């Protein structure tokens, strides 16, 4: 802390540090943000492809980031299961109604 007259002034960073978004520190923040958004968007697209609630998984990805991705990978249904469910639904609609 330095003083100008009788008023103390807090120095947040030395003169050689340009602040919070300077140099490589800014690059790290921007890269982290981009990775976070890519994870959330990928989770949304993958959930939509697997007929899950895509909006919910987008929100989970935006809030939880890498932890949300790990949870999604653990709980998501396999593509074989999704295909099997679609085939069962198609067969169910193709069968004629039972005679009365």
Salient structural properties:
mainly alpha, 100 residues, 6% strand, two-stranded antiparallel ribbon, 4 helices
Strand % is 5-15%
Strand order of the largest sheet: 1-2
Please describe the biggest sheet, giving its number of strands, its sense, and whether it closes into a barrel.
2 strands, antiparallel
Instruction: Pick out the low-confidence regions.
Output: none
Percentage of residues in helical conformation: 55-70%
End-to-end separation in angstroms reads: 91 Å
Question: Which overall shape is indicated by the principal axes computed on the Cα atoms?
Answer: rod-shaped
- As a whole number of angstroms, the C-alpha radius of gyration is 26 Å
Q: Structural class of the helices, strands and pairings?
A: mainly alpha
Report what the structure shows:
This protein is mostly helical and 100 residues long. It has helices at residues 24-49, 54-64, 66-75, 79-94, and strands spanning 2-4, 7-9. It has a domain at 55-86. 63% of the residues lie in helices and 6% in strands. Helix 1 runs parallel beside helix 3 and helix 2 packs antiparallel against helix 3. The relative contact order is 0.08. The mean pLDDT is 80.
């Amino acid at each position: 802390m330095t003083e100008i007259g009788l008023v103390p002034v807090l120095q947040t960073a030395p003169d050689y540090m340009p602040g919070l978004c300077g140099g490589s520190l800014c690059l790290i923040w921007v890269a982290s943000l981009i990775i976070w958004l890519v994870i959330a968007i990928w989770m949304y697209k993958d959930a939509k492809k697997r007929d899950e609630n895509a909006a919910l998984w987008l929100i989970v990805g935006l809030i939880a980031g890498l932890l949300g991705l790990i949870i999604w990978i653990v709980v998501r249904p396999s593509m074989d299961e999704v295909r099997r469910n679609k085939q069962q639904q198609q067969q169910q609609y193709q069968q004629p109604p039972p005679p009365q």
